[in-house]
Amino acid sequence: EHPFRPSKDTEERLKVIPKFCFPDPKDWFPSSDLKSETFSFVLTGEDGSRWFGYCRKLLPEGKGKRLPEVYCIVSRLGCFNLFSKILDEVEKRREMSPALVHPFMRSVMEAPFPAPGRTITVRSFLPGAGDEVMELCRPLDSRLEHVDFECLLQCLSVSHTIRVFASLLLERRVIFVADNLSTLSKCGHAAVATLYPFTWQHTYIPVLPASMIDIVCSPTPFLIGILSCSLPQLWDLPIEEVLIVDLCADKFLQEVSDEDEILPHKLQAALVQILEERSEILSHEQSDTQGDTSLNSLVSEAFVQFFVEIVGHYSLHMSVTEQGQRVFQREPFRKSHGSRTVRHFLHCFMETQMFAGFIQDRELSK
User: Fold this and answer.
1) Where does the record place the UDENN domain (predicted)?
2) Residue-level pLDDT at 107
3) Averaged pLDDT for residues 16-39
4) Which of 230, 242, 215, 187 is nearest to 23 (CA)?
5) Are 135 and 281 in contact (CB under 8 A)?
6) Which segments within the chain are labelled E, that is strand?
7) 8-138: what fold?
8) Phi and psi of 196, rounded to 5°?
9) Which of 59, 238, 258, 342 has CB atoms 3.0–4.6 Å from 34's, for a disulfide?
């Protein structure tokens, strides 16, 4: 509705949104019974900027077979809980009458977007209930906000989770397969979150529309999710050197077969131990501190600790030139690690775009 002239790139992205809202052609069929589902997608522009799509798929009230609807909010900001809360409200209003959705969304659009750590209130009228006040808060640190490690660890054994992590670290091609949209999108986001403080720089499509399945033939790194019903099409395509992970059966449908050899063994064992014993650690910590250590923070800390052991000494190898520029000394950094297996791993990891991006940010920061 905004009177702006979208760029060509923006227009392309807007055109493709319906495909991502209904990734499977069967989604367009009328149905008499459908549980509402929340999922998300990510669109990456030519300049690398990302749009996040937050979707709620539901069946409108009524009798007999009806067409499903998807309500989708697109934002440049990853802020899952805030948008989920808005979509809850949209669903509640849609059940009463479609006419109630638009005025509510207008009042949301007119409210200022909360700054990190802040809460805003949105007032909206609901027939029979009068004025309703809704609080929308944005977390200070949103890196774990969209992340559900629980779902990933329920779908995959610890050893499979670690192998997926290792494959992503070397920027390989990974395909997740599952029966439903929410499992695909939750597991995709959780897998990307294991890489923090590094950022996945490549193609990332939590749920790939069936009509775009040819993308999996791309020779560049990607993390892509496909619905199980697209598997027959997948097997018809010429795909090589791809790790294909069945999230519903906890097994690899195809692998490169060195996935267990990528990470330095001692550090891999330490990571495995924390993830295997996560329930015991959590119950122990909660009884000790009366605090609430969440599974998300425990898992994230375990992966961060892995990176601290491997690259935590990077700052000792930043030198400053006479012009005041920070420059990273690659070889001294790699050779300075005491462990031969870590040095060998670094030899591969330092070639990734993830590592290059991380170091470039550090060189540019004051």
Assistant:
1) 1-366
2) 86
3) 85
4) 230
5) no
6) 37-44, 50-58, 69-75, 119-126, 130-137, 173-178, 203-205, 222-227, 242-246, 251-254, 318-320, 326-328
7) Beta-Lactamase (3.30.450)
8) -55, 135
9) 59
